[in-house]
């Protein structure tokens, strides 16, 4: 192995570079971050070449955040465009093998940090680029030649970002006419288990990976060229519930990969045994009980959702490879799925989206709901959201009246039950103290109303209070 100014090992996966130990930040929530892999002819690639357009590491100011784009070109006899996404997703792995360099997310949401210790050992991104390419060619031998260009100039990063988003859009469109019921196998991915040990990422034709980088075709290509890699086949097994998207084979793999923590994953459910959320997800959904609706917020949105919480906070409590009822991480392309949270109302349950996200996924939103889903421009808190939904007659509003009627019926039943309940008889010789009469009513007595309550009493003692002498 070539000599590098930092150690390289899988043991560094999961290493976090905290703000106090950071030399520079690349991309992330405060800037632009991109990674893209493109297949190219062998003759067009200068093997192991690293090109840097914009300030290099030695030109950067400590503690600052810079725009960042990585464009890798790969070539080889077996390299084809279908493998671009597969190779791209391994960028996360191999960068995190490098000591003191942290990589999070994917595609156009890349967030990296270089530690002070690592920056002190190198003054350029060149050895870092060479190390990552060395890892790629070692782990994925079908890559025969590779080169990389790092962009840190803002204008250049923006230009690359615009081009890349069109490429991502074309990739995602491939699964449009393929559905879960059309295939015998799904695909699993364990790339995020270094950060989320119990995460079980299941990729089906109707559900893209949480990171948004791997669709069903990508999973198939990855499993074919790298059978021992992080993407693998999942025999979907018997269909247990078509609405929730529950399959016996998925449940089996969920139990195995989560070390028994979960025994069910329902691919298209928001509340009941939902898909686990790793932390690399592009969007997080959150239940708003006050309106019985679901809001969604993406990484690009820097404000607060109507529940008073921002993306980073919700992502923190949703991620980690858990099933958190009321929160769900997804890839953006899942919005386009005909099975999008169909077990819980689908689009009829969506009540809030950031305006930019709403604009981005405009084609996915049913025409009759487009003006009924609020954004931060329409509702900034629960009360304004409720007013907006009522004004627009959103489908969830119809559920409010039904819920109120149900509550009233339950309240009446509980009142009757309390009135009919037998009184506990006191022990012999004990005089029941007189209960005070309530003013304002002809019948007197005390009215107790228990709403949605469960009360268990093992023992109750009623005694007369004696005045102190």
Automatic annotation (TrEMBL):
- Keywords of this entry: Acyltransferase, Iron, Iron-sulfur, Metal-binding, Methanogenesis, Nickel, Transferase
GO molecular function list? acetyltransferase activity; anaerobic carbon-monoxide dehydrogenase activity; CO-methylating acetyl-CoA synthase activity; iron ion binding; iron-sulfur cluster binding; nickel cation binding
Instruction: Report the co-factor binding details.
Output: Binds 1 [Ni-Fe-S] cluster.
Look up the record and name the pathway of this protein: One-carbon metabolism; methanogenesis from acetate
Q: Which reaction does it catalyse?
A: Co(I)-[corrinoid Fe-S protein] + acetyl-CoA + H(+) = methyl-Co(III)-[corrinoid Fe-S protein] + CO + CoA
Enzyme Commission (EC) number: 2.3.1.169
What are the TM regions of this chain, as residue ranges?
A: none
Cofactor(s) for this UniProt protein = [Ni-Fe-S] cluster
Name the source's superkingdom.
Answer: Archaea
Q: Which GO terms describe its biological process?
A: acetyl-CoA metabolic process; methanogenesis, from acetate
Q: Where is the CO dehydrogenase/acetyl-CoA synthase complex beta subunit C-terminal domain?
A: 168-397
Q: What is this protein called?
A: Acetyl-CoA decarbonylase/synthase complex subunit beta
